[in-house]
Amino acid sequence: MIIFGFRSSVIQIAMMTYLCSRCGNPAAHALRKVVRKFTLFFIPLFPVSTKYSVQCTFCGAAAELTKQEVDEALARQVTSPAPAEVQPSPEEPAGGQPLS
User: Fold this and answer.
1) C-beta separation of 13 from 33 below 8 A
2) Phi, psi for residue 77 in degrees, rounded to 5
């Protein structure tokens, strides 16, 4: 008797902030990769299919993406500049109140 089947594993690639097309909120979106593998005697042997999806953490809306769209999104995330730190001006103390 040979026992075979399929097993899916979900890998979270990144968390990105997008404007959700369903709820309209700027929310974090989980970028996920779902790999389906053929198993023999409960041992995963080789991948059968790979799918990518993004899911809004605010409303739960999900959408499938292509490999090219995922690569572009990851490239934008890497090349986007980090937010600059706001430095207080010399006229203002660290508390934010102007000097009188």
Assistant:
1) yes
2) -65, -40
**Structure-token pair, residue 21:** 């097309």
Query: Which tokens in the block code for residue 20?
Result: 């959700």
Given a contact cutoff of 8 angstroms between Cβ atoms, the answer to whether 30 and 54 are in contact is yes
pLDDT (tens digit, 9 = 90+) per residue, 7-32? 999 999 999 988 888 888 899 999 99
Q: Are 70 and 31 in contact (CB under 8 A)?
A: yes
Q: In the numeric block, which tokens belong to residue 31?
A: 């970028």
Pairing of strands 62-65, 43-56: antiparallel
- SS3 sequence, the chain? CCCEEEEEEEEEEEEEEEECCCCCCEEEEEEEEEEEEEEECCEEEEEEEEEEEEEECCCCCEEEECHHHHHHHHHHHHHCCCCCCCCCCCCCCCCCCCCC
Q: What is the pTM of this model?
A: 0.69
